[in-house]
Design a protein that fits this description.
single chain; alpha+beta; 2 domains; four-stranded antiparallel beta sheet; transmembrane; membrane; PH domain-containing protein
Length: 285
């Protein structure tokens, strides 16, 4: 049923907290003091004493600190999405029908603004150093170009909106800069996890037929997931999904993935409207 909270349809994973834990509040206070209040105080003092150069840079740092604060708030305090309205039928490039769950594009937009701001600040620093004929001009200029690449690549669609695709063949995760696919036969288990933020973990076998591709050489913001084995000698392929970033109820997505992993005979329905109806009804028995 669209818009219905997951707790009314499927069990909520115990490992996922409904509210942010106390350390997240402590981190936000630290970010506020160090990256916003501190530079803003320096800016106020600088303007009052006539040190406009230092004041202007400090004010710019405070604005960047505010953006970092907002990114942290978005990652740690964002509400879990509800309902499955965004879960829709989809056909892959290979003509395989399935279901697609888009990932929120709020984070790319905020990161675009942050990197553009950093590029502007560094470019201003490079220009200031050039006026003074200082050798640091090239360092600030190179950093400005590097940070400017992200918004350029994003606006040119080199970074695409992330999504999760489920077909009768397996699970495909498209990150900002990579693509990862695991067939059902290569998946050991699917479970909920928590490491500062809630995740859905698709855990593969060591010899999994894992298809992955890094799509970008510069600004590899994310990459296919490899889980470290207990002995540390080898990494195990997998898919790691940030639960709060999904555009559909993560508990329902978790239940859907687990259902089709356990019920091989039911995977053919993914190609029809039956899978979508099952997700909306929360019928994963």
């Amino acid at each position: 049923m669209p818009g219905m909270p997951s707790s009314d349809l499927v069990p909520w994973p115990d490992v996922w907290p409904k509210k942010a834990p106390w350390p997240h509040y402590q981190h936000m206070v630290s970010i506020t003091l160090l990256l916003f209040v501190g530079p803003l105080t320096v800016a106020v003092i600088g303007y009052s004493t006539g040190e406009t150069g230092i004041a202007s840079y400090s004010l710019a740092l405070a604005l960047i600190g505010a953006q970092i604060w907002w990114l942290g708030y978005h990652a740690w305090f964002r509400d879990y999405p509800q309902g499955v309205d965004e879960l829709t039928a989809y056909t892959t490039d290979n003509g395989v029908p399935g279901l697609i769950i888009p990932v929120s594009n709020d984070a790319p937009r905020r990161t675009l603004l942050l990197t553009a701001s950093l590029a502007g600040l560094l470019a201003a620093g490079a220009a200031h150093a050039a006026v003074q004929d200082h050798e640091s001009t090239y360092v600030w200029g190179a950093l400005a170009v590097y940070f400017a690449l992200f918004p350029v690549l994003l606006t040119r669609s080199k970074f695409l909106r992330s999504y999760l695709v489920v077909t009768r063949e397996g699970v495909c995760h498209r990150g900002w800069t990579f693509r990862s696919f695991l067939p059902w036969s290569s998946i050991q288990m699917i479970f909920a996890a928590y490491n500062r933020i809630p995740y859905i973990v698709v855990f593969g076998y060591e010899d999994a037929q894992w298809e992955r591709r890094q799509l970008m050489k510069v600004w590899r913001h994310d990459k296919p997931t490899k889980f470290r084995r207990s002995d540390g000698k080898r990494r195990i392929p997998g898919i790691l999904i940030q639960s709060k970033m999904l555009s559909a109820d993560p508990a329902i997505v978790l239940a859907l993935l687990g259902f089709y992993l356990e019920h091989r005979h039911a995977r053919d329905e993914i190609a029809s409207g039956a899978a979508l109806a099952r997700a909306r009804a929360g019928d994963f028995r």
